Amino acid sequence: MNRIKEVIDEKGIKQTWLAEKLGKSFNMVNGYVQNRHQPSLETLYKIAAILNVSVKDLLVDNDEKRDEI
């Protein structure tokens, strides 16, 4: 699970902009945002750099996720 959707929403960034910056299709980025696909580590680092956040900010702690259930 990732927090890409939360981070881009907090920053007011559009998925199309992120897709363009990553050089990926909108559909691929939308898959990341909707947690249908998980980005590779390389892509996750690129997303973090583009969004100016740490990689850790893009990840969901499994313990936190269990607490929500």
TrEMBL record:
Limits of the HTH cro/C1-type domain: 4-58
Gene Ontology molecular function, alphabetical: DNA binding
Pfam families for this protein: HTH_3 (PF01381)
Domain of life: Bacteria
Protein name per its UniProtKB record: Helix-turn-helix domain-containing protein
Species this chain originates from: Xiashengella succiniciproducens
High-level lineage: Bacteria, Pseudomonadati, Bacteroidota, Bacteroidia, Marinilabiliales
